[in-house]
Amino acid sequence: ELPPSEFMQVADSTWLVLSVVSNGREAPGCQATGVTKIARSVIAPLAEHHVSVLMLSTYQTDFILVRERDLPVVIHTLAGEFDIYKEESGECVPVTCDDVSNGFLQPKPPASPTLHPVQSPQTRFCVLTVAPDTLPAIATMLIDVLFYSHSPPWDAAAGSQDLDSITFFSFSLIEGYISIVMDAETQKRFPSDLLLTSSTGELWRMVRIGGQPLGFDECGIVAQIAEPLAAADISAYYISTFNFDHALVPEEGIAEVIQLLQQRQEGGR
């Protein structure tokens, strides 16, 4: 419904959402397994079959977006590990490989993935949610932060931002559930009694992937981060964007994460 605009760029693909639950034999209503827990069972196999994914973590769960044209490959790749359902008229219906066998692409010879540079700003972040009925109380502040505060000039170079203090704010509204990622300083501008976080109230540090806009065609970017973190059993909150990918990890584990990723970079040279 958005009118065409010279300021809006639309990727030339239609994407579908995969929601991965921990007990695959129960269709809806199960707790998600998290980005690092699905690294080996979902993210890595899709990368090996040359399927590009967008990763979107929320306060409640994690979602993987795949291009609609890649769906046959996705189903054939994951059917051995998961029961797969599609939504039809609000109901979850089982999907079998036979339903989408036409057009399945055979795996290509594995290629050495591109290891993108990884940077870690000093900024500390909060992962929050808001009760939907309290959203109007912070709407004005949200609009100010999203559209008017700390906006970089349009002609700024993609990599010119000072990584000692990165500007990052994420707001998602999915099926009525709200998720917000903001830096700890910005959080102080909001009423503390309306922002809900985990009982530990932990802060997060960011690892940003990419030295230039990544686009959507390359495969294995999420796997570059998720696989080593999964091997070390480190949780991560992951958000893909057009320009960069962002993984948030608990603050106390940032040194170990940077060391792991540096070792992977050196091993891939």
Care to give the gist of this entry?
This protein is an alpha+beta fold. It has 6 helices and 12 strands. One of its GO terms (cellular component) is cytosol.
Key structural traits:
VC0802-like, 3-stranded antiparallel beta sheet, 6 helices, arginine binding
SSE map:
Blueprint: E1 15-19, H1 39-48, E2 53-57, E3 62-67, H2 71-78, E4 84-88, E5 91-95, E6 118-119, E7 124-128, H3 135-147, E8 170-174, E9 177-183, H4 184-187, E10 204-209, H5 221-231, E11 237-240, E12 245-250, H6 254-267
Antiparallel strand pairs: 1-3, 2-3, 4-5, 6-10, 7-9, 7-10, 8-9, 10-12, 11-12
Helix pairs in contact: 1-2, 1-5, 5-6
Description:
With 269 residues, this protein is of the alpha+beta class. It is 22% helix and 23% strand. The chain has six helices and twelve strands. The chain has helices at 39-48, 71-78, 135-147, 184-187, 221-231, 254-267, and strands spanning 15-19, 53-57, 62-67, 84-88, 91-95, 118-119, 124-128, 170-174, 177-183, 204-209, 237-240, 245-250. Strands 6, 7, 8, 9, 10, 11 and 12 form a seven-stranded antiparallel sheet that branches. It has a three-stranded antiparallel sheet with strand order 1-3-2, covered by helices on one side. It has a two-stranded antiparallel sheet with strand order 4-5. α1 (39-48) crosses α2 (71-78). Residues 24-33, 99-105 and 153-160 have low confidence and may be disordered.
